[in-house]
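The authors assume throughout that readers already know how a fold can be written as discrete tokens. Each protein is reduced to its one-letter sequence and a matching series of backbone shape codes. I therefore recommend that a typical entry be quoted early in the introduction. For illustration, here is how one protein appears when written out as sequence plus structure tokens:
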Amino acid sequence: MAVLQSIVDSITPEYHTDPHLPEKETVAEQDSLRILIGILGISLPFILWIGLWITSGYTHTLESLSHYYYTRVNPFFSVTIGILAIVLILYKGGKKIDFILSTLAGIFALCVIFFPTNNLSTTCCNPEYLYSITFINPEDIYSTFHFLSAGIFLISLAIMSLFRFPMDNSSNEHPTPRDKFLYRAAGVVMLIAMLVIAMGKWDILFDQKYFHAPYSGTFWGEVIAVWAFGYSWLLKAGFFTKTYQLLVQ
């Protein structure tokens, strides 16, 4: 029962101070979640690329981060996204809107796993795609919903960087003008990256060929987006300042 109550308390957005819990402990817990979210976002592309290189000897990037689902690094992809989704759902933030946005991002991050993108190859066991070990036949609605889920996931995080992180009531810290600029810049970068990917997918202004192998425009757009969101969460947690202070001590 104690474990169940702990889970319920974790996912319940209560925004009053517990008199029995020192305020700095509450802040530390939130910062720990932010750091974990930021590190998972930034490290995901490295985990997938290095993992596929080690397991299959394949050194090129795939068409998108989601296509690693069909390779030997599927466990790394699924577990990393899954942990990120759960931590986002557990995150409370400073106001209920933070909880709503992060939970929305977490739910659709899970949908990215549950509804995979289209296959790497059009046929099963294609010798040209030896690094791919999985082939499923999702209907078009699967890949479409996957694309929408990924978009909602990143848009929710972009909104947090643009409109919530720069606010004084988003946490117990008061962001400086420089930090506010960096939060908003990260949000803008995420939105631009997603817009470029969408235009490439629908052949608007950009030729679709640049968003498939060997150019992998979708992959690099996603990498830029997850790096931007990861950076903003680490900045929100004071990760860079704390790391610098630790190094100079």
Remarks:
- Residues 151 and 208 are 18 Å apart (CA to CA).
- Confidence is low (pLDDT under 50) at residues 1-12.
